[in-house]
Amino acid sequence: xxxxxxxxxxxxxxxxxxxxxxxxxxxxxxxxxxxxxxxxxxxxxxxxxxxxxxxxxxxxxxxxxxxxxxxxxxxxxxxxxxxxxxxxxxxxxxxxxxxxxxxxxxxxxxxxxxxxxxxxxxxxxxxxxxxxxxxxxxxxxxxxxxxxxxxxxxxxxxxxxxxxxxxxxxxxxxxxxxxxxxxxxxxxxxxxxxxxxxxxxxxxxxxxxxxxxxxxxxxxxxxxxxxxxxxxxxxxxxxxxxxxxxxxxxxxxxxxxxxxxxxxxxxxxxxxxxxxxxxxxxxxxxxxxxxxxxxxxxxxxxxxxxxxxxxxxxxxxxxxxxxxxxxxxxxxxxxxxxxxxxxxxxxxxxxxxxxxxxxxxxxxxxxxxxxxxxxxxxxxxxxxxxxxxxxxxxxxxxxxxxxxxxxxxxxxxxxxxxxxxxxxxxxxxxxxxxxxxxxxxxxxxxxxxxxxxxxxxxxxxxxxxxxxxxxxxxxxxxxxxxxxxx
Length: 486
Prior knowledge:
Blueprint: H1 2-5, H2 22-29, H3 37-41, H4 53-58, E1 70-86, E2 89-110, E3 117-131, E4 134-142, H5 147-154, H6 163-166, H7 171-176, E5 181-184, E6 189-192, E7 200-223, E8 227-250, E9 258-285, E10 288-295, E11 298-314, E12 317-322, E13 326-334, E14 337-346, E15 350-360, E16 365-368, H8 377-386, E17 389-401, E18 404-413, E19 426-436, E20 441-456, E21 469-485
Antiparallel strand pairs: 1-2, 1-21, 2-3, 3-7, 4-7, 5-6, 7-8, 8-9, 9-10, 9-11, 10-14, 11-12, 11-13, 13-16, 14-15, 15-17, 17-18, 18-19, 19-20, 20-21
């Protein structure tokens, strides 16, 4: 199964794309909540706990737990570190960034102490649902192939005059910078390159920033202080901007006119979308709670720009080619999600909560806009055949220590390739503390560490072969949330 894993993007590694592909679908479908410090400290296992703005994004019935109005704001620090190993050489890269992963407001109104409807609530809030800030650096000596070999395979049978119109972003720029040339023998004209077929330094650098987030507008009902119902509408946003550069350099002492070359992609994607959610929480007994929620598919409209830069140095002569900028729009459908939750309450001392979440990454789809006739059917078939359904599990606990609370959490996000697979799974661990500043004001702190491993290839080397890049990611998140009740 390793071959399958290295053909797809895993855990925020941006894939080379001349149009949207299965890797983009996975990237845009991921959800890793970074909202309030309370939720983060409990591993975001909040579906049956409620009373928190991140919990409202997970299960809108969570708003029904509120008995007083509340306002919250959070500040977060992310440190994303990647360790990349390629042909026995290991390099590291990290990116640190401040963010505001949560702001929120809830208005709670008491209705009756004698009738079934006890409280109603309305609120809205911002929750960060993923973070695309990353910097990676992979480099090693490839003994068998070059990216140029892939180019030569693709243009076999094409005439030089066709390259400009058929391959304007990658192969024609390589032709224009003398990375590809023609020679003639007794058989006829053929393509050649000064870049050696292997035994070259080769690697890739990625530097991206961005986020996905959702503005949630929710309403809820408290019935008999036991049954809580909520519904919400989300305005979702995805923004990702950055560069990816493939580099190849000659090894020291090599007898070749080739010095170095690079291929850089500048990518900017921005999308807005919406979905609806519905959920419930049921207090079955004083010590047992159940929760459930449904997240509809999210429909996004994306605009994207893409441009490439090819630079070469041959015989110490530098050449550069900037491709035309490509601007296009498309529709993306993020898959639906089901959530089941359970919580055990130990009086006023503490709580233990478990969430189980199902989503099918293979159900993601791209569609052309009404003004575009691009056929996304092959891409959607690739998504369906590459990815599958998966389960995510989150476990959290909170314990009272005087007027403060200690929190711990852990989570396992299953492989996007389907049940029973292990590739690209994510493991998380977290802790937190709540400290009262006054009767109605509290500050919460939380720390989360997540770990994942990915395998990917730089290009299709065919029979020449190429080793996959092994990347280990360690993501550190520190959150602080202040909340006031009134």
